[in-house]
Hints:
single chain, about 290 residues, alpha+beta, six-stranded mixed beta sheet, about 65% helix, about 10% strand
Amino acid sequence: MNYENSFLIKIDNLRIKSRMASTKSKSPRGWDNPKNMSQRSLHEFDEAKAARGKNILRKIQEWESYIGNEERALYNLHHFDAENDIVSQEAKERYAKSQMEKRKEKITVIKLRITVFQKELELLKAGELDDAIRESVQKVKSTSLDLRKKEQEKFQHKRDAKRKTQKALTDKRESDRQDRREYYGKERIMKRYQSHFDRTTPPRNICKNLRDFPNNKGYMWRGIQFFGHKPVQHGAPVVLFEPGKHHLTIHEWRRDGYRVYHKVGRARKGRPVLEERKRPGIAEAFWKNKGGRL
Length: 294
């Protein structure tokens, strides 16, 4: 196999790639025109070119070290002497010869590789690979921009999801806070009403009358409604008497509305002082609780 021709073809390919990169359509404001490159772009190009040169030198040093190893192996094969006396001298020489041919062929290949890297280094120093380096840097730059854009989109998605979760938690906490406030507010009102009810005791005459009243008739005393102890009179209106300083106020709920009367002493209650048609309220709630209708 002719290794030298294959490596010479590789060197020609380097020149062709460089020429192709330089003959591409040039943008007056792009990377192809060094005059229009920004300071940052020039810095990136210089870094990429220096890194390319260091990489080539490192590879040359590695392959040269391989040559040293192979030459030491050749030296050992020249002075090869098998320890086993059973092996004939002819076999020793045949083995050493085959190994030396393999090592020499390997050294030739390595030297050709080094030649390729040296030619590439010469092209790099001559500036013939500048366009190819600019193109590779631009590709890396566009790839990094795409990756950065994807990372930003991913970060934005996570941030939006986090904000959405935080908003849901905030809304839930606010809703729970409102529910607790409403619950404790109602509880305070109920306790206040219960305390007011516990402290409120109607006079004896009212308590005595309530024993004889039906359950749809009673008294309103200090904002609390007291109903009679006897069974409900179905079909009769709901009537509550509210004693006052100067007169007795009579609240009456019928099917057609709500009326208020004032009564002084033992006089008749007379005409209503307030009359409202179809007023929903205590009468409807009362008869609903009793399972009946007005």
